[in-house]
Structures are given as structure tokens and as C-alpha cells.
Predict the structure.
Amino acid sequence: MIHDLAPVVDGHLSVSRIIKRWCSTYAVDLNYVEHTMTLALLQIDFVFDGPWGDALADVCRELADDIAQEPGLRWKLWTEDPESARAGGVYLFDDRAAAAAYLTKHRARLAAFGVKDSDIVARVLDVNPALSTRTRGPVGGAADSFTTLARVQVADTKTFLDVFASAGLAARSAHGSKGAQVFAGDENTVHVLIDWADEAAFDAFRTAPDVAATMKRGGAVARPVFQSVRRLGQFTA
């Protein structure tokens, strides 16, 4: 039980200490969590009187295609509840700015459809990718993104992860990375899976002078060996 791990402060459980103690016990790297907490989740629902299900899918096909092109959007789950007469969606964006921009646009669209602003419930939340990945959360890149798998020899794994989650994250974001995962290989070897906006974004990243310097800071002892891979599916088990 998590309470067994929790220190007591003035007779009360300290939530922050609970989390830190729990993450320490289960080997969750809090520095990595803090560095990578950039994704944003938008939750929105509103009063809606139908249609529902397949009928809604038929009506909203063009709208769905338009939403799929929204800058910074990774995915959207469409939600509906005929019993309470509400519909909406859950969206994952690259950051809060993209989520806020879309929310402003969507409020205006709903107003044009006759939905009152008072009938809309919306909130933007930060996403913790490190913990979400552990619970099979879909926080990787879009299915149609360009994905690379790299094998990197490093001098020290901890130094590599520290730089990868800070200066490396900034460099990848600037060049169109949509998400990255790091796996341990043989001794002093890591495997890095990165989703990119497209192949051009990856090419720009690979040839950028600042990227080579960042890799050196991270302790890469040789140039990474990249190969492109194509995600065929993602499953919950």
C-alpha cells in the first residue's frame, strides 16, 4: 500500500513525499519525469442532442479529417454519452500552447453550431510521459510519423539520460521530435526510439551542428547508428 511508504508530517500525510518515496521504491526517475513533462491533455465536453455512434461518424467525417491536421495534435478520442446528452473528446497535444490554441478555435466552432459557452466544460492538463509510458499510455508519436531506432554507445548511462532529458529534449523538440523512448542494451549501450514529424525533420536533426555537441555532452562515444522503422500497431497488452 502506498500509505506504508508515506512519511507523516504533523499528523498528516505529505503528498509530495508520498510520491517521491513511491517513485524511489519503484525506480521511477523523477528528474526524467520533470524534464519530459511537456505534453498537454485537453478534456472537453458539451451539451449535444445527437446523432450518436455510426451516424455521428458519418456526419463528422470531414470535421475529423480537419481536426487531424491541427498543429501539435497527436491524437483525439471522440467521446459521447447519449444518456446525459453530452459529447466531446480527449486530445493529446505537444504542449499547452497548442492545446490552448485549439480550445480557442473549438469554442468558436461550437458557438457557430449553437452551443452556449456555459454548456462547455474544458480543461488543459500536463501529462507525465514517464509514468504514462509505464501504464501503457499512448504518449508516443502519431501513427503516420517517421520513426527511427538508434543504437548509441555511451560512457555513462546516467549522464546520457540527464542530457537526453534536458538539452537533448530541447534539441529534439526544435527539430520536430514527437516523442522518444530509451531502452537499455548491452553494457554502455542504449537504444533510442524517436518519432519525428516527418523524414525531413529527422534529416535536419541529424545534420544540425548543435546536435553533435549535445550528443558529446551526453557521453556518446561514437556516432549513433540510426535505422528507420515503421510502427504497425500499438496494443494495450
User: Anything to note?
Assistant: The longest helix spans residues 96-112. Strands lie at 8-9, 12-13, 40-47, 73-81, 86-93, 120-126, 146-153, 177-184, 189-196, 225-229. Residues 14 and 68 are 42 Å apart (CA to CA). Confidence is low (pLDDT under 50) at residues 1-10, 26-37.
